[in-house]
Amino acid sequence: MKSLRRNLFVAAASALCIAVFFVAVSLAGGAKRARAERGGDDQWVNIGEIYNDSTSRFKAGELGRLYQALAGSDVTTIEGLESAMTGGSLTSQNFRAQNSGKNVSVSFGGMKWDAVYLTTAQHDGENTKAGDIILDLWRSADDLKSTDKATYSGGWVSTTATLTYPSNMYSTSKIRVDTLNAGGQYSQYGGSALEEKHEQDDANQYARFTMSTVANSVTKYLAKPSEVGYQADEWDEATANSYNSNKYYFPNDAYGAPKEGGQWYNNDCNYLDNNRDGGRAEGAKYKTWQDDYVWLPSMMETGRVNDTGDGIWDT
């Protein structure tokens, strides 16, 4: 079933238990973040599997339960969900308000995800149209296994931001290319060049979320950051203020330039325009992840670890 106007799409933000995630912390801070601890089932509304592999369609009953959990017991259709988004979006705090303080999780594609943010597409894309409703999903911590660990870079760390391919640049990270099955190239040791191209793996656990050619693929229901739109210059002032008083953007938070009021820590951290100085990598490499189906969430979305009241998602 091809996407139609007002269909529900999901933006799948995968949060893994990452072995060496906080690399180059002085440069990246928490620009891409791992999942915090998750409470017991008494703190969650758990929605069953919403997708039927046999029919390649969503299950109406579970989808209706999801709508109710997101926007209220009287909301059972996509039209009702759209009407409930009076401010243009609904956050995790809005979901909790509908469920006596409980968060919402949902099974999709054989994995368990936390529903964290409801918004609309701002740009037409491969499967989406501007105005389509988007649900951001964050991989549930209790769905992860002890083997779900990965290094962020290709086994090396550097705090030098002026490398051609910095070790903490997300688009050229090993975790994006291999672990999350985006494919492409990640930076070699030393940051002066890229590895040979890595093809996507149809045996990867995220294959059905990242490859349209595998059995039971669900990519036609997924939105990309370039279609979601807010991730081009995402900004949450409370998050920025909780970390620093100068409203700095972290590298990798957004795939575009800072919006008015925000700024890079310094010019070296502006990976987007890092084709300056002759030998630096082209800025296009920095924003390659804008066309991924699965990605690591940013601090601007999640807020800071152990803090409340900040983050776009208000988790």
Give a concise summary:
The protein is 19% helix and 15% strand. It is α/β, with parallel strands linked by helices. Strands 1, 2, 5, 6, 7, 8 and 11 form a seven-stranded mixed sheet that branches. A two-stranded antiparallel sheet has the order 3-4. Strands 9-10 form a two-stranded parallel sheet.
Overall description:
The protein contains 10 helices and 11 strands. It has 315 residues and is of the alpha/beta class. Strand 3 and strand 4 (57-58) form a beta hairpin. Helix 2 (60-71) packs parallel to helix 3 and helix 2 packs across helix 4. The two termini are 32 Å apart. Residues 1-6 and 15-37 have low confidence and may be disordered.
Largest sheet: 7 strands, mixed
Principal-axes geometry comes out as globular
What is Rg? 19 Å
Number of E-type strands: 11
Q: Structural class of the helix and strand makeup? A: alpha/beta
